[in-house]
What does this fold into?
Amino acid sequence: MSASEKIKAKAEQLAGKTIRKAAHAVGNRSVTVKGAALETRGKAREAKERGKDVFKH
It folds into this structure.
């Protein structure tokens, strides 16, 4: 997993989690869903990079 992709994945996960929790606290359902989607995208990016590492070695 390249360092830059790892950082992007973790940043997306953190941003998504922060957005999701803040929106949930204020009761904004649509933004909560967008935050969850961003967090999921970060997790998918991380899984993709791990898969690439498996085939690399």
